[in-house]
Specification:
Helix 3 packs across helix 4. With 449 residues, the protein is α/β, with parallel strands linked by helices. The strands form 7 sheets. It has a 5-stranded mixed beta sheet, sandwiched between helices. A 4-stranded mixed beta sheet has the order 5-4-3-20. A 3-stranded mixed beta sheet has the order 9-10-11, sandwiched between helices. The radius of gyration is 25 Å and the shape is globular. It has a domain of 307 residues: 5-stranded Propeller (L-arginine/glycine Amidinotransferase, Chain A), CATH 3.75.10.10. The chain is 30% helix and 23% strand.
Length: 449
């Protein structure tokens, strides 16, 4: 055997390592090809490759998530549906900037009623907003850690309309649907779906459909209910286009669109109805002798929903009265938050107390085993919304960060111009300062995940 001289050894090592790297690259290429062709000829996992997927429509995974899809898996498959809000929930998102400044009492009352039943996550634009929020909660006797704060820029309280819409993907994964931003009123809220998708490490499905979460309800069995505003809104769209998007991007099998009543400025469906189970829905009721036009529209909505079939039989429709609308404000009792075993119902200072009791008792009968709490929402309703409008449910098929949400992102500014990195080990553990670095410093934005 020929002996290799010391001068030749480096070259031999280089050749050996080059061959090894070439073999690894070949194996990786074969594995990638197998993924594309595997799963029984299922086709490519990206939504933009519509030719390989049945009825994929225009849904597509944002290109920036291609690496994430390869890393985390099961994230680019066709959408299989949305969860009903009466199903178990992992968290509830609140947009705190305007909420704390303009609706402080509602914020405190909501947190006091819900924090023991569901993880509450408050989005804040700055450290100052976080500190103000914590101060407000402390003044109300609410324990520290009841809300976990995450820095996500936003301006308005109505996170239901601009926030992430969570959908299941085949294989048990999750994705965020980000609808057409041009339909949104505020230019300071449009990045929220992207930021939440990054925090939760799920892909973002870009939808051309201009849909706001307040105008989207589901019974969790493939039935979607909206108002006609989804077709006749600021950007008129054909019914066929809407139906395709609701099927392809949200996984809905059936779509019902209703005529909205008067005085509902947003024309959103959650202002006059709510699903309490796959086969149970509540619809607002107006007195025909006092408010004939709204009575006609609401009665028609109830009748149309009663014709729907579910896995449990025909849809059961229950009617709830409206609050005092004599001043032209649509005081709804259906814009509710269902947070696991607590149900939060908007109530108003000038309610007829008999009517309020009738409403709360009805929810208690229809959702036995859940605590029903009235939350004063007058300041919200004066701006056109109520409790559901200012919150966003996160269903349990979305995997939360392992360390919990007890942290503030590195972008959170301190008074001294530094960046505060804070990480929590789990729920209700408070904040643990890690270090502060200059604002211009390079910081991993995923710190704390």
């Amino acid at each position: 055997m020929k002996r290799i001289d010391s001068e030749e050894r480096p070259a031999v090592r280089v050749a050996w390592y080059s061959g090894l790297l070439l073999a690894v690259a070949l194996l990786m290429a074969l594995a990638a090809l197998a993924m594309l062709l595997g799963e029984g000829g299922r086709g490519r996992s990206y939504f933009e490759n519509t030719s390989a997927l049945e009825n994929a429509g225009e849904a597509r995974i944002s290109p920036e998530w291609s690496a994430a899809e390869r890393m985390w898996g099961d994230l680019g498959r066709p959408v299989s549906g949305m969860a009903g809000e009466f199903e178990p929930q992992a968290a509830l998102l609140l947009a705190c900037d305007e909420l704390v400044e303009e609706h402080a009492q509602t914020f405190a009352d909501l947190v006091a009623a819900a924090h023991r039943h569901i993880k509450l996550v408050g989005l804040v634009s700055s450290n100052m907003v976080r500190l103000r929020s914590e101060e407000l909660l402390a003044e109300s006797g609410i324990p520290k850690g009841a809300v976990a704060f995450v820095q996500v820029p936003q301006q308005t309280v109505w996170i239901r309309d601009y926030g992430p819409l969570f959908v299941r993907t085949e294989g048990g994964g999750a994705a965020v649907v980000d609808s057409d931003r041009s339909a949104r009123c505020s230019t300071g809220d449009e990045t929220v779906p992207t930021e939440i998708a990054r925090i939760l490490r799920v892909p973002r499905i870009i939808s051309p459909l201009a849909v706001e979460g307040g105008n989207l309800l589901t019974n969790g069995e493939g039935l979607c209910v909206t108002t006609s505003a989804i077709v006749n809104g600021d950007a008129p769209t054909s019914r066929e286009t809407v139906a395709d998007s609701l099927r392809d991007e949200f996984g809905f099998a059936r779509w019902v669109h209703l005529r909205p009543p008067q005085w509902v400025e947003t024309e959103h469906v959650d202002m006059f109805m709510a699903f309490l189970a796959p086969d149970v829905v509540v619809v607002s009721r107006a007195v025909s002798g006092v408010d004939p036009e709204n009575a006609l529209a609401l009665d028609a909505a109830a009748e149309q929903l009663s014709r729907e079939k579910t896995s449990r039989g025909p849809m059961k429709v229950w009617r709830v009265p409206l609050g005092n609308c004599s001043d032209g404000v649509f005081r709804t009792y259906t814009n509710i938050i269902i947070a696991n075993d607590v149900v939060l119902v908007p109530v108003y200072p000038n309610d007829d107390l008999k009517v309020r009791k009738e409403v709360l008792d009805l929810y208690s009968r229809l959702m036995p085993g859940r605590k029903v709490v009235g939350i004063f929402a007058e300041s919200l309703i004066q701006h056109g919304g109520a409790l559901r409008c200012m919150s966003m449910n996160v269903p349990t098929f979305v995997k939360l960060p392992r360390a919990g949400f007890e942290w503030v992102s590195p972008r959170c500014e301190l008074d001294n111009g530094a960046v505060d990195l804070r990480v929590g080990a789990g729920p209700h553990n408070g904040y643990q300062p890690v270090k502060a670095v200059p604002r211009c410093g390079a910081v991993d934005e995923r710190c704390g995940l």
